[in-house]
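idk why but the lab printer keeps eating my pages so im just putting this in chat instead. protein + calcium ion:
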Amino acid sequence: MRIHPKLICCFLPVVFLCGCKKSGSTQETSTTKPAASTNAAPATTTPTASTPAAAPGSADTGASAETSARMAAADWALKQDEIKRDPNGQWAIQATASSTYNDAQGAADWSANQATGAPNVDKYGDNGAAWTSKTPDGGIEWLDLKYPKPVYATEVRVRESCGSGAVIKIEVYDEQGGSHAVWQGNDPTTELNYLMVKFPKTTFKTARVKITLATNVVPGWNEIDAVQLVGADQ
Ligand SMILES: [Ca+2]
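predcted complex ->
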């Protein structure tokens, strides 16, 4: 019964954002990245691909646009694959959240555990293989993830799969349980992409990451497919 409004809510952004996927990369460039220390560039469609600049009116315009869309899609796929296979990257093995859609527990759709493991959402939009909060626009929500191996961390990659752009803070925890904010700012992620936050190598080992969202910032459901912790033994 609640599925219905949910689908609608999520579908609208899909239509808007996916509908302008090509120009989406232009938006990204213009979105000012948080002045904060990070280089939160979504692993995305590179802006280069969106500038075919074919001669106006030429018969090739359509073909060039199509070619560049394909190149952008290929770049996107390559980047996704590179992240997935990063030898210094770990996927979460356990997760809890401030709330879950339909109070989902265990391995149920939209439960916190849907954000563990490698990414498994292939298309931007509402998907039970990602975590989402109980309500779409309630405000502050969080996702807390644990990883198999404590590392000196250098980066966190958050794969957003619906209503992207609502993350406001990322913290990592030291082994005594102390939290350390590694990023705080305006999330520039659009569509199905990673928010990638790099930071100076932590002086402590961490195996726990907390993602905070302000779900009211991006209307509709804000879903997280997976979160990768990047770091090494030393
Ligand atoms: Ca997932």
